[in-house]
Each structure stands twice: as structure tokens, then as C-alpha cells.
Amino acid sequence: MAVDYDIVIIGGGSGGLVVASAAAQLNAKVALVEKDRLGGDCLWFGCVPSKSLLHASRVAHEVKNSSRFGIYTTPPDIQFVEATGHVQKVISTIQPHDSPERFESLGVEVIFGEGQFKDEKTFSVNGRDLKARAFVVSTGSRPKVPPIEGLEEAGFLTNEQVFSLKERPESLAVIGAGPIGCELGQAFHRLGSQVTMVSSRDHILPKEDPEAALVVEKQLEADGINLLRGARAQKVEVIDGKKHLWVGDEEVVVDEILISSGRVPNVHSLNLAAAGVKYNEQGIEVNEKLQTSNNRIYACGDVIGGYQFTHVAGYEAGVVVQNALFFPSAKADYRVVPWATFTEPELARVGLTEKQARDRYGDDVEILKQEFADVDRAQAEGATEGFAKIITTGKGEILGAHIVGSSAGEIIHEVIMAMKHNLPVSALTGIIHIYPTLSEVNSKAALQLKKRNYAKNTQLQNTLRKLFGFLRSINS
Ligand SMILES: Cc1cc2nc3c(=O)[nH]c(=O)nc-3n(C[C@H](O)[C@H](O)[C@H](O)COP(=O)(O)OP(=O)(O)OC[C@H]3O[C@@H](n4cnc5c(N)ncnc54)[C@H](O)[C@@H]3O)c2cc1C
Ligand SMILES: NC(=O)c1ccc[n+]([C@@H]2O[C@H](COP(=O)([O-])OP(=O)(O)OC[C@H]3O[C@@H](n4cnc5c(N)ncnc54)[C@H](O)[C@@H]3O)[C@@H](O)[C@H]2O)c1
């Protein structure tokens, strides 16, 4: 039986919008179902507002600390509402790119509504039954709220409310020290809130290289953030308008609580069972072609768990477009997935950690670590905290990289390029780096393998010693 659409996409965020625009530009018949606004978390409550707020907070910090460069100012007068005004301005400048009008102009039928699967071949929304050759579920994720006694009654913020606050909370407890907690904790603290961060682990950013995460942790504490490690909030109570939070033996009294303790996939209202789509707590189960247990239905982005980043949702969307519109042969390849946490200093990563590398490659692992303090540009800018750590095999195959420091999220790209194209680490010393740039941290790290191998090669050293001796002896 004929169907109306080549592809019906459910969820118009980072993943769904890429599928929609690519499919429409390939002349497929496309419908996009969105329950709220196009743009998803990244535009409204995620990447865009968080990076805009972080920038404002970084400026405040720079002004406050400018005396180290001989620039004296009065303490900055931070108008919080104007800083969040900057955030909203950035969102509205970017938003037209994700607007219904733009997608309609590409030929996408945009349907606003929250629908459900009726059966294995039908998605029903606003009383209409949509039948398609393929469906894509890209409904994203939402904040996971931990079971803390009294939290619901006391009220709390998540990333969905925090960017539209009209007043700065004078004090803020941040529950969870992953990327959301660290980025927003630092931003609010630098904009004038007194921040207490509660980390269930002994260190912040537990998914990162521990040594690199420690550099960020030290900066958060140097900023003045009160970090409670290895602790969980148990109870909240509102007393005289303040939120009293019990964390182990400590009682923390704050104006607001921000929850940043992980994400849950948006699967529940879709009636996935009717479509034969399996899911678990992490999200929808997919194979490497991003097909669900119903091979006509694909899924991508946060809703499949895994790497929850905008650029990964976009990458997966590309795989889905190929497979859903044509023959399903493309496989998602996660060998080289980079990301960054945009605190100051930034922490960027690609590939394996030191531990993962040692688990897989045993003793055949080299750690090439270069401190920013030995990079001239870092000295010039007073940005000497941090390092680049490139992990390779003895022969120089790049297994991973962890850069913590100023602009780490930018600097890491040449390592990503080398790794993706299977270039050895020597490729990073084989190009001329502009002097003085922070990117020299990569070539300096990479050079260490060459030096280390030369230091081990006593035969070559002796040969060269003899050769130069001979050349000197015949030089008249
Ligand atoms: C505070 C914060 C900061 C972040 N910073 C970064 C960053 O700097 N870099 C980065 O790469 N990633 C960042 N992320 C992660 C990034 O936002 C997500 O990985 C990305 O948005 C996932 O894209 P997605 O398409 O899966 O979901 P989304 O972009 O969230 O899109 C899902 C869409 O589906 C819609 N939807 C949900 N349920 C239904 C339904 N039943 N029917 C119809 N529509 C539905 C939603 O309304 C939404 O529009 C951040 C996240 C947060 C929370
Ligand atoms: N710069 C970026 O790319 C960026 C920024 C923000 C978010 N993100 C994405 O969003 C995802 C979600 O971020 P997140 O920070 O919410 O989640 P996360 O899962 O990465 O970190 C949450 C942390 O909270 C801790 N935690 C859980 N319950 C707790 C409790 N009751 N008390 C104290 N700590 C508790 C967890 O152990 C964990 O370390 C990230 O994994 C990332 O993929 C990316």
C-alpha cells in the first residue's frame, strides 16, 4: 500500500532538524512533528544559552581580575538581568535558522502536536494518521530529578528555567557536578551568586580524565565555589523563605536549587510499545545503523542515550538520512567522538582515556603530556593553567587526547583531524604551527614521542655521534 511520506520525524531539535532539512533537500516527502518549538534543548535550554551566559560570566571574571595586567577598575557592577538579556538576544538571533518558516520553505511539512504510534506503521497526531516509509524518533531528553525528600515542595530549577530568571539568586546549590553543573555553577558564581556544588563523586566531571578534571575543580574552588565532594543531598525544607538543604552532616541554606544530575530520555508519551520499539532506562535501543527493534523506525540524539551532544545528534542524523531514505547500509562510527566542557579552563576530549588505553593496549601506551606553562602564548595571556595529554601507541597511533586549558575546545580539532584520518601523532609536529599560538601545545606534546624514541635508541645516538665526529675530522 502506498504511503504519504518518505520520512516522518518526531522531535525537531538538533537531530530531527538535520534529518528534516537533509531529507527535504534530497526531494523526499518529509513531515516533522514537534510538540513545542523547533530548536530543541540546544537552542532554548542548552548549548546556546549556557555558552552565552558563560561568556558574560567570563567577562565579569576578567574585569574583576584585570589588575594582574596592570589594569585597575572598580569592582564590576553586574546587572544580572542584562546578562540574561544577552542570552535571550543570542537565542533570538540564532532561532530563525531553526524556524518553522525556514523548514517549510525547504519543503518540510511542520506539524505542531504531541502524537503517538498507533501501530508499527502509523504515527497519529492531531487526529491525523501519518504513514511513512520510515520514521525517526529524535525527541531528546529531559533533566533527571533525584529523589530528595521535600524537593518537589520546595521547588527547584533545571536547565529549562535557569536561563530565564529575572533576578540573580544570591545563593545557589547545584546538585550534580557533571558538565551542566560545572558550567552553570561557574557561570552563576562569576555573575555574583554564592554557589555550593554537591558532587556525588569524589571529583567533578567523573567522565573525564581525572587529572584534567582536577584542573577545572581547582579553578572552581579558586573562584570561591563551595564544593561538597562524595555527597548527596537528602532533604530540603523551606524555612523563612530560604531553602535548607541537608547534605550528609552539612546544612546548606540557599535561595535556589539547580538540578543537574543527569538526563532521562523522552520516550514515554510516544506509545513505542504499539510500534514494537524497545527501550530501556538509557533510551531507545538501536543497532549500529540506528534502526530500532522495528526496522522501519530509526532513532538518534539524546533519546538513544550514548553521547548526548548536539554534534553527535547531527552526526547520527546523517547516518539516519542515508539509511532511512535509501538502502540501510551506513553504520554509526563512534571511534572519534570529541566534546568539550566550556568551563574556564575548558576541558576537551577525544578518544580513549589513559585507563581505557591501558586496558586495551597494555604496556604499548605512551602518554605525551605538555603543560600550557611552557607555551609562550599562554604565558603572554596569563593562561598557564592546564595541559594537553595525547595518548598514543608506541608507534604513534593516536588513541585519545585530553586538553584542559584556555580554548581547549578549539585547540583539540587538529588532533581530532589527525585521529579521524589515522595520521600518526608525528603529523602534529609535521606541520608548521603559527608562533605564538596556544595550538603549539599539540606539537610540543607530539614532539615528546620523537624525543622519547630517540632517547631510547642508543644505537642511532652512537651512529650519529660517530658520523658527526667523522664529519668534523674531515672539515678543513
Ligand atoms: C545546559 C545544557 C548545555 C548543553 N551544552 C552542550 C554543548 O555545549 N555542546 C553540545 O554538543 N551539547 C550540549 N548539550 C546537549 C545538547 O543540548 C543535546 O545533546 C542535544 O540538544 C540533543 O539533540 P536531540 O535532537 O536529541 O534533542 P533536542 O535537541 O532536545 O530535541 C528534541 C525535540 O523533541 C521534542 N519532543 C520531545 N518529545 C516529543 C514528542 N512526544 N513529540 C514531539 N516532539 C517531542 C522536543 O520539544 C525537542 O524540540 C547541552 C545540554 C544542556 C541541557
Ligand atoms: N559542553 C557540553 O557539551 C555539555 C554541557 C552540558 C551538558 N552536556 C550534555 O548533557 C549531559 C547531561 O549533563 P549532566 O551534567 O546533567 O549529567 P551527567 O550525567 O554528565 O552528570 C551528572 C552528575 O551528577 C551526579 N549526581 C547524580 N545524582 C546526584 C545527586 N543526587 N547528588 C549529587 N550528584 C549527583 C552524577 O554522579 C554525575 O556525575 C552530559 O552528559 C552531556 O552529554 C554537554
UniProtKB/TrEMBL annotation:
- Occurrences of domain Pyridine nucleotide-disulphide oxidoreductase dimerisation (ranges): 337-444
Question: What Gene3D superfamilies does the record point to?
Answer: 3.30.390.30, FAD/NAD(P)-binding domain
**UniProt keyword annotations, A-Z:** Disulfide bond, FAD, Flavoprotein, NAD, NADP, Nucleotide-binding, Oxidoreductase, Redox-active center
Highest taxon listed in the record's lineage: Bacteria
Q: List the Gene Ontology MF annotations in alphabetical order.
A: flavin adenine dinucleotide binding; NAD(P)H dehydrogenase (quinone) activity; oxidoreductase activity, acting on a sulfur group of donors, NAD(P) as acceptor
Write one Pfam family the protein is assigned to.
Pyr_redox_2
Q: Which residues are FAD-binding?
A: 51, 115, 139-141, 302
Could you tell me which cysteines form disulfide bridges? 42-47
Keyword rRNA-binding assigned to the entry: answer is: no
The free-text cofactor remark is: Binds 1 FAD per subunit.
Required co-factor?
FAD
Spell out the family assignment given in the record's similarity comment. Belongs to the class-I pyridine nucleotide-disulfide oxidoreductase family.
State what protein this is by name. Answer: Pyridine nucleotide-disulfide oxidoreductase
* Organism listed in the record: Euhalothece natronophila Z-M001
